[in-house]
Amino acid sequence: MSIFRRSKPADPQPVAPDEADPAEEAVTDEAGAEEVPTAQAASPRPGGPFDVNDVEGREGRLDLGALWVRGVQGMELRLEVEQESQQVNAATAVLGESALQVQAFAAPRSSGLWEDIRAEIARTVQAQGGTAEERTGDLGTELRTRMPSAGPDGRTVFAPATFLGVDGPRWFLRGVLSGRAAIDDAAAAPLLEVFRGLVVVRGGEPMAPRELLPLRLPRDAQPEPEDDESAEGTGIDPFERGPEITEVR
């Protein structure tokens, strides 16, 4: 599995933190621990993604800090690094003409985030002239979107993306399928295997809901340099031009 590091200017956080103080969140967790078990906020995950307490060791997964990732044949792993802080903000698995972006966030003990975040993404897409439609997939409710942009000839084209969300114990995992995987189930299958194989390491420190769980460059791997052409062709922001299939109207 090849690993690429890609620097990028700071962007607004894809999942905005709630207006909550981390210390206050910690007190709330302690006070409500007996009344509202963590399991109530988590989605059933018998086939993954997994919490770190669900597995015995990494089992061949790559340690990125808050996420452990297991690759598939032919996959490239691209890490998005914010230029100023040098913080790894996201990881993207690239396979052929398809990509899967993954990020993990802190979540309240008492409730999940995916339902609210799904609605927020849909409103954002629709406000920009795109479409958003929910459907039930193997991982629960998905959000399928199409974002309009101007093609080379000036005509409007639509870039598809599929948003995945899983509520775990005090964490939320978001995935974004783009490229051919957003419209072709066969192309999506190996990337969904990667998503289901993820392990989330939440940690015990107090964090505000929706705060990004920290990722890091793997200690046991040397990232390969990425040229400008490659970087431009595999952007991980679902609202940027990345690996995509366009539909002309």
Helix and strand topology:
Layout: E1 2-8, H1 22-32, E2 50-51, E3 62-63, E4 67-69, E5 76-82, E6 88-95, E7 98-106, H2 114-127, E8 131-137, E9 140-150, E10 156-168, E11 171-179, H3 185-196, E12 199-200, H4 228-233, E13 247-248
Parallel strand pairs: 1-5, 2-12
Antiparallel strand pairs: 3-4, 4-12, 5-6, 6-7, 7-11, 8-9, 9-10, 10-11, 10-13
Characterize the structure shown.
This protein is 17% helix and 33% strand. The chain has 249 residues and is of the alpha+beta class. It has one domain (2-6, 37-218): Protein Transport Mog1p, Chain A. The strands form 2 sheets. Strands 1, 5, 6, 7, 8, 9, 10, 11 and 13 form a 9-stranded mixed β-sheet that branches. Strands 2-12-4-3 form a 4-stranded mixed β-sheet.
Brief descriptors of the model:
DUF3710 domain-containing protein, four-stranded mixed β-sheet, alpha+beta, 249 residues, DUF3710, nine-stranded mixed β-sheet, Protein Transport Mog1p, Chain A, single chain
Multimerization status: single chain
The strand count comes to 13
How far the N terminus sits from the C terminus, by CA atoms, comes to 37 Å
User: Any idea what the radius of gyration is?
Assistant: 18 Å
Count of helical regions:
4
Q: Tell me the name of the CATH class.
A: Alpha Beta
Q: Name the overall outline.
A: globular
Order of helices and strands: EHEEEEEEHEEEEHEHE
CATH topology descriptor: Protein Transport Mog1p, Chain A
| Portion in helices | 10-25%
